[in-house]
Amino acid sequence: MEMEESDLKQLTKPGMFSKFAAADIERANFDKRNEELLYLGVKPDAVFIGDSITQFWDMPLYLGGDEKLIVNRGIGGDITENVLKRFEADVLQLEPRACICMAGINDAHELLALPDTEESNRLVIGHTIANLGQIIKLAKAKRIPLALCSITPSNCPADAALEDRRNRMVPELNRELKTLCDEEKIPYVDYYSAMVMQGTLKMNADYTRDGIHPNANGYTAMTKVLSSKLKGWCKLFT
After folding, report:
1. What is the C-alpha separation between 55 and 48, in angstroms, rounded?
2. What is the pLDDT of residues 19-43, one digit of tens each?
3. pTM reported for the whole predicted model
C-alpha cells in the first residue's frame, strides 16, 4: 500500500533521513551532547566521525588523557552519504581542533544490488569518493584540519554474499582515497596495510573479533598507525 504524503512527512521530519538510517536513532543523543559542548563553549581537541568501527573505539582508553577532549561521533551502519549529511551538526558546529574521518566500508553493500563487474566497483567507489570529497570541502571552508582514513579489510565468512566482492573493491577504493588526500593536501591514514593478512585481501584474524570490527589488538594497531601518521599534526599526537 502506498503511503499518503502526510504519512511520509511524519517519517521524514526536518533533520531526519528520508529512509531508515542508524544516524536517526542517535540524532537526539548527539544533539544533546553537541548542545552541551556549545553551551559550555568547549571546543574538542578532536572529533572522530564514521561508522561502527569508530563507534566501538574507546577513544579515551586508547588516545585520551586528562588534558584531551575527544568526541566520538561514530554510528554503526553509517554510509558516507549519511556521514556527509550529519557532518555540519556533528563536526562543523563544534569547531574541533581536528577531525578524523573513517567511512566507506558500509557503502560496499550497494554492490549486492549490482552485477559483479568492474563497472559496478567503479560506480560504488565513485559515490564514496564524491561524498568524502564533499566532506573535505566542508572542513576546509570552516578551516577545520581533517584527516581521512583508509577502509580496513574484512575476514567475515558469515557474510559470504558480500565478502569477496568487498575485499576486491576495498584496495581500489583506498587507492582512490589516497589520491584524493594527496590532491587536497590532507593526511591519509593507512590502516589497511597494517591490518591485511600478508598475501591475501583479508583482515588478519588476530585483529578482529567478528571479521569486520577490530578487537583490542586491532584497535591497538590502529592507534599506533594513527599516532605515527599524525604525530605533531594536532594536540592528540604531539
Report:
1. 9
2. 556 667 788 899 999 999 999 999 9
3. 0.88
- In the block, cell 559470504 appears at 160
Residue identified by cell 591519509 is 188
**CA-closest candidate to residue 78, choices 30, 139, 12, 7:** 30
Strands (E), the chain: 46-50, 70-74, 99-102, 146-149, 188-189
Cα distances (angstroms) measured from residue 99 to each of 33, 46, 115, 220: 17, 5, 35, 20
Residue 71: C-alpha distances to residues 4, 8, 25, 28, 232 (Å): 40, 33, 18, 16, 19
- CB neighbour list of residue 88: distance below 8 Å, 6 or more residues apart: 138
* DSSP character at residue 12: S
Q: How many CA atoms lie within 13 A of 102 on its CB side?
A: 24
The angle formed by the CA atoms of residues 163, 165 and 166, to the nearest 5 degrees, is: 65
Instruction: Give the amino acid at 3.
Output: M
Strand, helix or coil for residue 100: strand
Q: Which residue has the cell 577513544?
A: 59
Report angle CA 220, 155, 192 to the nearest 5 degrees. Answer: 50
pLDDT tens digits for range 140-193: 999 999 999 999 999 988 788 889 999 999 999 999 999 999 999 999 999 999
Q: What is the dihedral of CA 150, 153, 154, 160, to 10 degrees?
A: 110
